[in-house]
Write a structure and sequence with these properties.
single chain; alpha/beta; Rossmann fold
């Protein structure tokens, strides 16, 4: 029986939000020797709750085959510049988000590997059976999800290693899509966050305005949530019946009222995507508000 080779993995930010997710998935996996790097009081308490102990940072880095940077985007670049010079040649640096990588925050070092992966989160069109699956909005605890992976630099054989780790971190995984870091940045932030969050929160504003206008909240919520489902199904081609003629007409009226004609093209231009990841790693919007 073939066993997966043991991977020594240094997890920086092990007690943080994403670090705890990684810890919970991998701490009992015999395929990994985990070295937990954490300095924050709350993070250390989270590690104690999980029955694991931290390792001094430099000791963990010297031993690591793979280093996962489970760190906030605003500090990831700064910490990467401290960490990467200490790594052995051939080590893999694994990030959980494309922002810092696409923004140029990772230091140049040609003898290491950079790998980026991110979850797609549970599919809104998937048919989950148990209450735990249905209520797992993030995924990776009960609900299955797809993932995306990118080998930013490094030998081709390292792609399989990175994908293995990603599948274990985000399990249960349905599909793994190999893409580039640039494509991942188009997916997030531009598609899923810049556009997706703005549009979702706009729907929330619409709901609240409906209630403010006197419609009972329970009626407004039932009507909104039901119509979101049917409109998603029709809009994304998941059902055979179309929008009615009246719905298509008034939907076009809404589009013209709400959106500028070139809003989508502008947001997806490569320079705009770069600007969006810079906002994330810098933690602020442009001063001119544009």
């Amino acid at each position: 029986m073939n066993q997966k080779p043991l991977i020594t993995l240094a997890l920086l930010g092990a007690g943080g939000k994403m670090g705890c997710r990684v810890t919970d998935h991998l701490k009992d996996d015999p395929g990994y020797r985990l070295l937990y790097v954490e300095t924050g009081e709350r993070g250390l308490a989270n590690l104690r709750e999980r029955g694991v102990s931290p390792t001094p940072r430099d000791e963990a880095l010297r031993a690591a085959d793979v280093v996962i940077l489970a760190l906030p985007d605003r500090v990831l670049g700064k910490l990467a510049h401290e960490v990467v010079p200490l790594l052995r040649p051939g080590c893999m640096v694994f990030t959980l988000d494309p922002a810092a990588a696409h923004a140029g925050e990772l230091p140049a070092r040609p003898d290491i590997t950079y790998f980026v992966s991110h979850p797609c989160h549970p599919d809104v069109f998937d048919h989950f059976q148990t209450e735990a699956e249905i209520n797992d909005f993030f995924g990776g605890t009960h609900a299955r999800q797809a993932i995306v992976c990118a080998l930013m630099q490094g030998p081709e054989e390292h792609y399989g290693l990175g994908e293995r780790i990603a599948r274990d971190i985000y399990a249960p995984v349905t599909r793994s899509h190999r893409i580039t870091v640039e494509q991942m940045a188009i997916l997030e932030p531009t598609m899923a966050e810049t556009c997706g969050i703005a549009l979702v929160l706009a729907l929330r504003e619409v709901l609240e305005e409906t209630v403010r206008r006197g419609v009972p909240r329970a009626a407004a919520e039932d009507f909104m949530y039901g119509h979101i489902k049917v409109e998603l199904g029709i809009g994304f081609g998941k059902t055979k019946f179309p929008f009615s003629d009246g719905a298509k007409l008034i939907g076009e009226h809404g589009r013209r009222k709400i959106f500028a004609d070139d809003w989508l093209r502008k947001l997806f231009e490569p320079q705009s995507v770069k600007e969006q990841v810079r906002m994330i790693v810098e933690g602020k919007l442009p001063e001119n508000g544009q």
